[in-house]
Specification:
Radius of gyration: 12 Å
Largest sheet: 4 strands, antiparallel
Distance between the termini: 14 Å
């Protein structure tokens, strides 16, 4: 079973840094994917959150550690 962890970050720069940090820290085979998530009814890029999707095919990543990583950049780990 392939588990996906979604980290929510306040901006693109933070999302890019978290993706790189996650890839380096956890030895991920590929860098996590980034997605822009505009808030409902908002077209302004300033009101967008960024999602970092981390694939975890062997279910070896600790969600507490992922949440702490996101928190370092003012984000959080989305609950499944």
């Amino acid at each position: 079973m392939n588990v996906r962890h979604v980290l929510v970050l306040p901006d693109r720069d933070a999302a890019e840094e978290v993706a790189q940090e996650a890839a380096d820290r956890f030895g991920l085979p590929e860098e996590p994917q980034l997605f822009r998530d505009a808030l409902a009814g908002e077209d302004d890029a300033e009101d967008a959150q960024w999602l970092v999707v981390v694939e975890d095919p062997q279910e070896r990543l600790d969600t507490t550690v992922l949440d702490a990583l996101a928190a370092e950049y003012e984000g959080w780990l989305e609950a499944p």
